[in-house]
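If you are new to this repository, start here. Below is one unmodified record pulled from the training split, so you can see the exact layout before writing a loader.
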Amino acid sequence: MDSPQNSITRLDDRIIKLQRWLSSHPYSHPERRSYLLNLIDVRLDRHKLLHTNEDLDNVILHLTEAVLLPLRRSDLAVIFCLSVLAKALLVRFLATRQSGDLESSIQYFRHLLNLDLPLWMRKDVMGGLVVALSSYAAGLEAGSTIHSTEVLVLCRELLTLYSPGDHLVDAILILKHLVIAASRESWEEPLDQVIEYMREAMEMCPSGSHRAAIALAETLTTRFARTSSIQDLEEAIVLVDKVVSSQPLGDEQNPDKLDALFLASQLSVIRFEVYENSQNLEGAISRIRDTLVYHPSGHNRHSILVQDLAHLAKKRSSYFHLTMLPQSACSDTSQEMGASALQLIGTSDGGQVGWDATIDVRRACSLTTIDQQIQNLHELLSGTVTGTSRYLCALADWNYTKFERTDDITDLEKSIEWRQIQLASASRDPTLQGRLTDLALDLLRVSQRSHTILFLEESISLLRYAIQMGDVGVQGTQGVFHRQALNVLHHCLLRRWRLIRHREDLDEAILLLQKSIDHESGNPPDKLEVACAWANLARTTAHPSVSTAYQIAMSWMQRSLIFSPTLHTKHAQLTAIQQVNKMPLAYVSYRVEAGHLEQAVEILEQGRALLWSEMRGLRTSIDRLSVANPALATKLATINRDLETLTMSIPLEGIGGTDWSSAQAEGGMDMFGQLLKKQRTLLDQREILTSQIRALPGFENFLKTPSFDTLRAAAERGPVIIVNHCEWRSDILIVLHHSPPFLITTPEDFYNRANELVDRLLDTRKKHRLESLQYQRTLLSVLKELYELVGQPVISKLRELNIPEQSRVWWCPTSVFCSLPLHAMGPIPSQDKVKMYFSDIYISSYTPTLSALIKSREPGVQTSDLPSLLVIAPPDKSLPGVIKEIGVIKQVLESSIRNSILEEATSENAAETLRHHRFAHIACHGVLEAGKPFDASFMLQGHDRLTLLNIVRSQLPAAEFALLSACHTAELTEGSIADEALHLTAAMQYCGFRSVVGTMWAMADTDGRDLAGYFYKSMFSSEDQGVPYYERSAKSLRDAVQKLRREKRVGLERWVNFVHYGA
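And here is the target side for that same chain:
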C-alpha cells in the first residue's frame, strides 16, 4: 500500500499527463469531456489527502468547462458534471464559507431535480440539496427565516427513493446534517419531523448499521440540548450502548465503534449533570476511562476526555470528601488530569483567571481582577454573537461576585439586569430552569436588602414558572435544575411567610422540602440535610409534620451512612454535616417533650455511635439462624465478612488512588469505583437475604432497630443514665431493667452551661500543663458545677428509686458530655466532711450505646485454661515507669494467672497475640492525630503503631478485660464527632473486650505502676468469687483510684483521668 507521499506524487504525475493531453487537443475534441472528468477525479483524490482549496477551485473550473462543452451523444454526462459541480461548490463553501458557492450549489441542485434523472442520481442530488439548504439555514443570522417546508418535502421524498436494505445510512447522515440547522430557533417543527424521518429510515436499515445508530443518537442529543428531554437522552444512550456492546474493540479499531464509545462517554457525563448523584458519577468515570484507552495522548479527543475526567474527579472528591488529585502523577494522563482540574477551579498554567471561572475562584479574586473580568466580558459581548448567552451569564455571575465583595446594591442590580437580558435572548436554553433560578435568587437577595416584598413576589413568580416547565415536561422534573428551583422557592415562600404570616406559604414551603427529598436527583447526604431542615422548621413553627419530618430524617441518616464505602469516608461524611448530627438528639428531646420516653430511648440508640452500630451489625450472631436455616446463615456470614473487610479497608490516595490511565481492571473502573460497585452489590445481596431471613418464623425482627423492651436489658446489672444534650431541651433519662424510663428535667440554662464547661476544660488543657495550678483550678470548678447540673439530681433520683449506694451505674452521655468526667462529679457534701465524689457513692462505667453494653454481656468462648494476661510493653526510655509497672504486675499476679510480656511488639504480632489471652494490659505511649480518629494508636517497637483501625479489624471472642495504661485512650480526637465515640477504649470494646479501662487525657508515668498494683490486687482477690473478672473490673478501678487519692495523694487531674467502659 502506498504511503501518503507516494500517493500524492503519483496523483501529481497523473495530473501533469492529463493537463498535457488537454492542452495539446482542441476544445472540440470528442474525448475532451472524458479527460476532464478523469482530471476532476484525480484532483478530488488529491483534495482528500491535502485538503487544499486550490484543488477544489480547479475541480470547479474543470466541471464548469465540462458542462459548457458541446453535446455529442447524450446530455447525461452533462447532467452528471453539473451534479458534481453542485457538490464541489457545496464542499468549497463548507471550507471557505463563501456564500456565492452555496447559493450556486442550491441553484444547480434545484435545476437538476426538475430533470428526468436516474434513481441513483436523484438520490444523490436530493441529498445534496438537503445538505445545502441545511447549511444555508445554519449560517443565517438570528431572526432570519428559510422555507422549512421545502426541506421537509425533500426529506420525505428522499426516503421514498430508498428500499429496505438499500444504502439508507447515507440518507440518515444527510438528515443528521439537517438537524444542525433544525436545532435553530426558527426551525422548531423540522427538528421533530426530521428525527421521525430518521426513525423510519432506521427501521429499514439492516441490522448492524452502526453509523446510522450513531447519527440518530447524535440528533437526539442535539434535541436534548435544546429541550432537556430526558427521554431523548436515555434513548441516545441505549443506541450507542448497542453499538459499543455489539463486539469488543480489538487491535483493529472500527471508526464507528470509536465514535460510539466517545459519544457514550459524553452522554454519561451529561446524564450525571442532569441527576447529580453518585451512581451516574461512577458510571461516567468508568465510561471515560474505557474511552481513554482507545484515545491516547495526541488524539484529538484525548484532551476533552481528560478534562471531563478532571471535572468528575472534583465532583467525586466533593461527594466522598477525598483528596482530589493523585499524590504522584505517575503518567502523562494523570498529569494532564491534574492540570485540567486546576483549570476547572479557574486557573491556567500562567495562573490567569478565566472569564468562566467557578464561584470559588471568583470569590478568591481581588476587586481589580473582578473589574477586569467584567470589562473583558463587555468586549467579548460587543464583538461576537456566538457564545452570547454564556457571556451574559458570566457577566451576571461576576457582577454578583463583585456585590459580595462591595456590598453595593448597584452591583447586585447589574447582575439581575444581565440575567434578564440573557433570559430574553435564550428562551429555549436547556438550562433555562437554572437561569430562572439564578435570577430568582438575585431578586430574593435584593428583597432581603431592600426589605420590599415586590422583588420577592417577582422571584416567586419566576420560580413557579421554572417548576411548571418541569411539571409539564418542557424541561423535565428529574434534573438538578428542577430540584434547585424547588429549594429556592422554599426559601422565598418562607421569607414571605415571615413577613406577612400567611399560613399557606408555610405549608407550601414545607411541601417543597418534601418534594426535594423525593426528587430523583441528589445524593443521600443532600436529602438528609433537607430532611433535617424540614424537621427544624416544622418544630420551630409547630407544624403538624414534625414527627413525619424527624422520621424521614432518621431514615436518610441511615442511607447516608451506607452512601460512603469505608470507615474513613463515612466519618468524613458525618463530619462534613455535623449540624445534621444533632438531629437525633433533637428528635429525642421532641419525644421526651411529648412524654414518649421509651421511644426517646429507641431513637437515641438508632441515631448515635452510627459507625460502631453499623460495624456491630456486620458481626451479629448467627447461632439461632444456623439452627433454623444453615444455608441462609452461611450466606449472611460470607456477605457480612466481605462487607466488613471492604468497610475497614485503608483509604485510597487521591480519587481512587490509581493512575487514571492504567489498564482497566473491571469495566473501566478505577479502584475506588470498584470499591463502590462491590459495596453496592453486597448491600443489595444483604438486603435480599435479610428479607428472606425475616420471613422465617421467629426472625421477624432480625436486624431491625431494637425496641425498648430489648434495650432495657442493658440495665440488668444496674441503671443506665442517659444525658441528652440538646438546644431544644436537655434531659436526663434513667433506664431500669424492670420499668419504663424515669425522667429528670433540667434547668433552662443546662445546654449553654454544659457547653461552657467543656470549652473551659478543653481550652485550659490546651494552654496549660495538666499538673499546672491553672488546670487544677479549672478541673475543680468544672467538677463542682457538673455535680450541680447532673450529679445532684441524679443521686436524688437514684435514692428515690431505691438504688443502693455502692451499686453500679452506667453513663450513656451525648454531645459535649462525652468529654466531661461524669464519674468524678463533686465534691459531694458529707456529714464527716470527707471529700467525696460521685464514684465514691456509685461505681461508674460508660457505654457508647445500650446495644454495646448488652453485647458485652453475651456469653463468650468458654475456656478451662488458667486465665492469662498479655502485657504489651515495648521498651521506651521516655517511659521509665513501664519497667516498674511490669514488675508490679508480675508480683501481684504471680500465683493468680499466667502472664506473658510482649516487649518487641509490632502491630502484626500484637494483634495476633491478643487472640490467645483473656486479659490485656497495654503500657506505652498513646497517640492522637487531629482530624484522624482511625489513626489514634499505641506506639510500639521501632515507631510501629497499633492503630484504632488495626484493633477494630481484630475479632477476639475469648477476650474479657483490657487495661490501657497509656495516654488519651478514651479521649476523642480533635475534629471527630463526639457521639461517634471513636477512641481506643471503644475500639477495644468493639473487637471483643467486655470491659476496658482507659484514660481521658495524658497520664503520669508513675500512675501506671501504682494503679496496676492496686487494680489487680482488687480484681483477683477472693472477695468476689463467682463474679466474672470483667464484671469485677469497674469496682476494682474505683478501689484503685480511691487508693491513689488517699494513699498516694495524687492530684485531681491524675485520678479523674481513669474511666471504665463496658460490662
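Two things worth knowing about this chain: The chain has 45 helices and 14 strands. Residues 310 and 341 are 5 Å apart (CA to CA).
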